[in-house]
Amino acid sequence: MNEACGSCGKPLGGRDLDYHINREKDKKASDEKWIFFIKESDGALVKNAKIVGNFFYTIYMAIITFIVWLIAMMPG
Hints:
Helix content: 55-70%
Strand content: under 5%
Distance between the termini: 56 Å
Low-confidence stretches: none
Number of strands: 0
Structural class: mainly alpha
Mean pLDDT: 86
Order of helices and strands: HH
């Protein structure tokens, strides 16, 4: 595998390459565990439901983040 560092462009090797490969595997496994992960095998209805689910989850997290920020900004 001829992979280069995303920051400096030097070729990865040894521990750097192992770390990069393991990180990519972990990221892929984590993404696939997400409840709204859209698989190629999903039907049109399921894909649309997951897109809507992702949208509302994002809105929910934005509201919760705003409330937490608001509480943190209150004095005392």
